[in-house]
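worker-3 :: picked 2Fe-2S ferredoxin-type domain-containing protein
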Amino acid sequence: MASLSFAAAAAAAVNLRRPDVTSDFGNRQRTSTLVRRKRLSLSLNAAGSTEPSSAAPEKPEIELEFIGPKPGADGSYPVDKAKAVSGEKLLRNIMNENKIELYATYGKAMNCGGGGSCGTCIVEIIDGKDLLNERTNTELRYLKKKPESWRLACQTIVGNKENSGKVVVQRLPQWKK
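worker-3 :: C-alpha coordinates ->
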Protein backbone atom coordinates (compact mmCIF):
# COMPACT_ATOMS: atom_id res chain seq x y z
CA MET A 1 0.00 0.00 0.00
CA ALA A 2 1.43 3.33 -1.01
CA SER A 3 1.43 6.05 1.60
CA LEU A 4 1.04 9.76 0.89
CA SER A 5 2.04 12.57 3.15
CA PHE A 6 -0.78 14.65 4.64
CA ALA A 7 0.18 17.74 2.61
CA ALA A 8 0.24 15.79 -0.65
CA ALA A 9 -3.11 14.15 0.12
CA ALA A 10 -4.70 17.50 0.98
CA ALA A 11 -3.36 19.12 -2.18
CA ALA A 12 -4.69 16.25 -4.25
CA ALA A 13 -8.11 16.35 -2.60
CA VAL A 14 -8.69 20.11 -2.78
CA ASN A 15 -7.82 22.17 -5.82
CA LEU A 16 -7.83 25.82 -4.79
CA ARG A 17 -7.10 27.22 -8.25
CA ARG A 18 -9.90 28.27 -10.53
CA PRO A 19 -9.94 26.21 -13.73
CA ASP A 20 -9.70 27.82 -17.13
CA VAL A 21 -13.09 28.56 -18.59
CA THR A 22 -13.92 26.86 -21.88
CA SER A 23 -16.44 28.48 -24.21
CA ASP A 24 -19.02 26.66 -26.27
CA PHE A 25 -16.71 26.88 -29.31
CA GLY A 26 -13.84 25.01 -27.68
CA ASN A 27 -11.63 28.09 -27.36
CA ARG A 28 -9.96 28.36 -23.99
CA GLN A 29 -10.44 31.62 -22.16
CA ARG A 30 -8.66 32.58 -18.97
CA THR A 31 -10.67 34.05 -16.15
CA SER A 32 -9.62 37.47 -14.94
CA THR A 33 -8.77 38.12 -11.35
CA LEU A 34 -9.64 41.22 -9.40
CA VAL A 35 -6.82 42.83 -7.48
CA ARG A 36 -7.86 44.90 -4.49
CA ARG A 37 -5.63 47.65 -3.27
CA LYS A 38 -5.78 49.14 0.17
CA ARG A 39 -5.13 52.85 0.55
CA LEU A 40 -2.82 53.92 3.30
CA SER A 41 -2.76 57.51 4.38
CA LEU A 42 0.44 58.85 5.84
CA SER A 43 0.95 61.86 8.00
CA LEU A 44 4.12 63.81 8.60
CA ASN A 45 4.89 64.29 12.25
CA ALA A 46 7.02 67.06 13.78
CA ALA A 47 10.22 65.02 13.43
CA GLY A 48 9.63 64.65 9.70
CA SER A 49 9.03 60.90 9.65
CA THR A 50 5.98 59.36 8.09
CA GLU A 51 3.68 57.06 10.03
CA PRO A 52 0.40 55.44 9.07
CA SER A 53 -2.50 57.67 10.07
CA SER A 54 -5.18 55.55 11.70
CA ALA A 55 -6.86 58.15 13.89
CA ALA A 56 -10.08 59.42 12.34
CA PRO A 57 -11.18 62.92 13.29
CA GLU A 58 -13.36 62.92 16.37
CA LYS A 59 -17.06 63.37 15.75
CA PRO A 60 -18.83 66.00 17.84
CA GLU A 61 -20.82 64.63 20.77
CA ILE A 62 -24.02 65.76 22.41
CA GLU A 63 -24.40 65.27 26.16
CA LEU A 64 -27.93 64.50 27.26
CA GLU A 65 -29.55 64.75 30.69
CA PHE A 66 -32.95 63.17 31.22
CA ILE A 67 -34.91 64.50 34.19
CA GLY A 68 -37.36 62.06 35.75
CA PRO A 69 -41.07 62.86 35.81
CA LYS A 70 -41.56 62.60 39.59
CA PRO A 71 -39.38 63.69 42.50
CA GLY A 72 -37.67 61.08 44.65
CA ALA A 73 -38.03 60.69 48.43
CA ASP A 74 -35.61 63.57 49.06
CA GLY A 75 -37.62 65.91 46.80
CA SER A 76 -35.08 66.03 43.97
CA TYR A 77 -35.80 64.77 40.49
CA PRO A 78 -33.72 61.80 39.29
CA VAL A 79 -31.36 62.54 36.39
CA ASP A 80 -30.09 60.01 33.84
CA LYS A 81 -27.18 60.92 31.56
CA ALA A 82 -26.16 59.73 28.10
CA LYS A 83 -23.94 60.80 25.20
CA ALA A 84 -24.53 60.53 21.47
CA VAL A 85 -22.64 61.38 18.29
CA SER A 86 -24.13 64.54 16.83
CA GLY A 87 -26.65 64.00 14.03
CA GLU A 88 -26.65 60.20 14.03
CA LYS A 89 -29.54 59.12 16.28
CA LEU A 90 -33.09 59.87 17.24
CA LEU A 91 -33.79 60.83 20.84
CA ARG A 92 -36.05 57.76 21.21
CA ASN A 93 -33.24 55.38 20.18
CA ILE A 94 -30.77 56.99 22.58
CA MET A 95 -33.24 56.60 25.45
CA ASN A 96 -33.97 52.96 24.58
CA GLU A 97 -30.26 52.06 24.23
CA ASN A 98 -29.53 53.58 27.65
CA LYS A 99 -32.63 51.98 29.22
CA ILE A 100 -34.15 55.34 30.11
CA GLU A 101 -37.92 55.23 30.60
CA LEU A 102 -39.72 57.01 27.80
CA TYR A 103 -43.33 55.88 27.92
CA ALA A 104 -46.08 56.14 30.50
CA THR A 105 -48.05 52.95 31.27
CA TYR A 106 -50.39 53.31 28.28
CA GLY A 107 -47.50 54.13 25.95
CA LYS A 108 -45.55 51.04 26.96
CA ALA A 109 -48.31 48.83 25.63
CA MET A 110 -49.68 50.99 22.82
CA ASN A 111 -46.72 52.80 21.21
CA CYS A 112 -46.08 52.68 17.46
CA GLY A 113 -42.43 51.65 17.77
CA GLY A 114 -41.03 54.96 16.57
CA GLY A 115 -43.14 55.44 13.47
CA GLY A 116 -44.55 58.81 14.54
CA SER A 117 -48.15 57.68 14.45
CA CYS A 118 -49.21 57.56 18.12
CA GLY A 119 -47.83 60.60 19.99
CA THR A 120 -46.94 58.64 23.17
CA CYS A 121 -43.21 59.51 23.27
CA ILE A 122 -43.64 63.15 24.32
CA VAL A 123 -40.67 64.83 26.02
CA GLU A 124 -39.99 68.44 26.94
CA ILE A 125 -36.73 70.10 25.93
CA ILE A 126 -35.62 72.21 28.89
CA ASP A 127 -32.28 73.33 27.44
CA GLY A 128 -30.40 72.85 24.17
CA LYS A 129 -33.29 73.21 21.73
CA ASP A 130 -30.90 74.70 19.16
CA LEU A 131 -28.97 71.37 19.09
CA LEU A 132 -32.01 69.47 17.76
CA ASN A 133 -33.73 69.38 14.38
CA GLU A 134 -36.82 71.53 13.69
CA ARG A 135 -40.26 70.11 14.45
CA THR A 136 -41.40 67.70 11.74
CA ASN A 137 -44.86 67.74 10.12
CA THR A 138 -45.79 64.76 12.31
CA GLU A 139 -44.89 66.73 15.43
CA LEU A 140 -46.80 69.77 14.22
CA ARG A 141 -49.89 67.56 13.84
CA TYR A 142 -49.65 65.77 17.21
CA LEU A 143 -48.36 68.71 19.27
CA LYS A 144 -50.31 71.63 17.82
CA LYS A 145 -52.00 72.43 21.16
CA LYS A 146 -48.93 71.65 23.28
CA PRO A 147 -46.12 73.98 24.37
CA GLU A 148 -43.39 74.71 21.79
CA SER A 149 -40.80 72.99 24.01
CA TRP A 150 -42.58 69.61 23.74
CA ARG A 151 -41.25 67.16 21.16
CA LEU A 152 -41.86 63.59 20.01
CA ALA A 153 -38.72 61.58 20.83
CA CYS A 154 -39.18 59.41 17.74
CA GLN A 155 -39.01 62.47 15.45
CA THR A 156 -36.19 64.37 17.19
CA ILE A 157 -32.69 64.06 15.74
CA VAL A 158 -29.98 64.90 18.27
CA GLY A 159 -27.42 67.25 16.70
CA ASN A 160 -26.60 67.99 13.06
CA LYS A 161 -23.20 66.22 12.65
CA GLU A 162 -21.35 69.49 13.25
CA ASN A 163 -22.50 70.84 16.61
CA SER A 164 -21.82 69.68 20.14
CA GLY A 165 -23.23 70.69 23.49
CA LYS A 166 -25.72 69.69 26.15
CA VAL A 167 -29.43 68.95 25.90
CA VAL A 168 -31.64 68.70 28.99
CA VAL A 169 -34.81 66.65 28.51
CA GLN A 170 -37.82 66.35 30.84
CA ARG A 171 -39.31 62.87 30.53
CA LEU A 172 -43.12 62.51 30.61
CA PRO A 173 -43.84 66.26 30.88
CA GLN A 174 -47.58 65.56 31.04
CA TRP A 175 -47.03 64.16 34.56
CA LYS A 176 -45.40 67.35 35.83
CA LYS A 177 -47.66 69.38 38.10
